[in-house]
Sequence to fold (146 residues):
Amino acid sequence: MYNQSNVGNANQAHISKRPVRRKRIGCLGCFGYSLLTILILAIGFFAFNTIRNKIEEIEQQKLEARFDYKQKLSAEDKLAQAFEKGKISADTYVLQLAYSLYDAEKLDPLYKSDNDIDFPPNLIDLIMKHIDELSDETLEYVAKKI
Fold:
């Protein structure tokens, strides 16, 4: 029995004297590990940016909702824009402005004011500026109302 245990110890001593062979990963393995690390970092970066962008978008929507303001245009502003774009003539422009002042129910619904209170337009200066382009009916209507 003593011999057997000595033999076992001798085998163990013989085994322990052998150098342990490590598995070498080589250049391809190093490249694979570095590529895997870069891939994990890139995925983390894109995930972080996506989450951050969504949070910023939600905050921006909250901010816009808090300060939501629609620009309200007066009848004069709407008519001036249409006249400057060439959608209406000077005669229609002056006549619709006169309607906005004196007969709001005759005013074209497209040019009705969005505001509750409007300042009166300077109709006299407008008439003097475009007097050659105005029809007789427009001039008569304005003359009766002024």
